[in-house]
Design goal:
- This protein has 14 helices and 7 strands.
- The protein is of the alpha/beta class and 290 residues long.
- The protein folds into 2 domains: 212 residues, TIM Barrel; 63 residues, no CATH class.
- Helices cover 45% and strands 15% of the residues.
- Strand 5, helix 8 and strand 6 form a beta-alpha-beta unit.
- The radius of gyration is 19 Å and the shape is globular.
- It binds flavin mononucleotide.
């Protein structure tokens, strides 16, 4: 997840049961012209098990060429983002805009599949403004995708409404490649509902924000007793790579997610949202999480 699944977050998620971790979405053009920015986003932890690098773009040749970039060398699998609804991505004909252009989407998948020996997957939504997920999934399979991930909302829905599990079940029944189901898995009930679609794997996004131990929890394990220690580990890992000034601002959102749902005063949340230093934030978090 862009702006969320940093190396510290992916490391903790892996320690607490995530079997596969995805990079933030990586621009194929940026990899060519401004590799420094992408470099930070592609650092992985030895704790990660199966590592997926997710790319986005709209030019088949540029995207295929990017797969040879050394920045992507350590990923086990390459995923193509065809589901991002962000206007700045869509206006370039990238992300979920490709769900309106199946012939270009197919060219991108074929070109990338030819350019790598690694498994290639595609992540997409139901469609741009209507459900074409089965047709799109079949196109991915025919174009050379090894597996697919469906976030069962349209682009028009953004993050509103509910993920349509029946569309995931229909897709699974109509393709011969593995399907990963995605959308609204946050607890055991939603996990079981997603499992009942027959999918081969389940992706969790927002449910892991502030709760990266959700993977173990869903596998029947207890969450960590010392959650403050987990937060400290997240911070320490990031401190190895990022400047303190940038990190102070970046971590504020993660800190707020760590206390989301916990009984704490709105002044405390405001203090975390405006905290001048990581040490100050950690003091506040210690008092809440302990
Ligand atoms: C802040 C944020 C950033 C995201 N970034 C990406 C991304 O870079 N690539 C991607 O495929 N999906 C991205 N997503 C979408 C999620 O991967 C997921 O498909 C969506 O949130 C639905 O799953 P969930 O209900 O488990 O969160 C992002 C979602 C959020 C909330």
């Amino acid at each position: 997840m862009a702006g969320v699944s940093d190396i510290g977050f992916r490391e903790i998620a892996s320690i607490f049961g995530a079997d596969i971790t995805w990079s933030e979405m990586l621009s194929c053009r940026a990899m060519l012209h401004n590799p420094k920015k992408t470099e930070f986003m592609t650092i992985c932890s030895p704790k990660e098990k199966i590592k997926i690098g997710q790319i986005f773009g709209h030019e088949p040749e540029v995207m295929a060429e990017s797969l040879a970039n050394p920045l992507l060398a350590h990923y086990d699998i390459i995923d193509i983002n065809m589901g991002c609804p962000a206007p700045k991505i869509v206006k370039n004909g990238e992300g979920s805009a490709l769900m309106k252009n199946l012939s270009l989407a197919s060219k991108i998948i074929s070109a990338c599949a030819k350019a790598t020996d690694r498994p290639l997957s595609v992540k997409f939504r139901l469609g741009f403004d209507r459900d074409i997920s089965t047709e799109f999934g079949k196109m991915c399979e025919e174009s050379g995708a090894s597996f697919i991930t469906l976030h069962a909302r349209t682009t028009a829905m953004g993050y509103s409404g509910k993920a349509g599990l029946e569309a995931i079940a229909k897709l699974k029944a109509n393709v011969n490649i593995p399907v990963i189901g995605n959308g609204d898995v946050v607890d055991n009930a939603s996990y079981q509902a997603m499992k009942a679609t027959g999918v081969d794997g389940i992706m969790i996004g927002r449910g892991a924000m502030g709760r990266p131990w959700i993977f173990d929890e869903l596998k029947g394990k207890q969450p960590p007793k010392d959650k403050f220690k987990v937060v400290c580990q997240h911070v320490e890992t990031l401190r190895k790579y990022y400047e303190e000034k940038w990190l102070t601002l970046y971590l504020r959102k993660h800190f707020l997610w760590y206390v989301s749902g916990l009984p704490c005063a709105s002044e405390t949340r405001l203090a975390l949202a405006t905290s001048p230093s990581i040490e100050n934030s950690l003091e506040i978090l210690k008092s809440i999480l302990d």
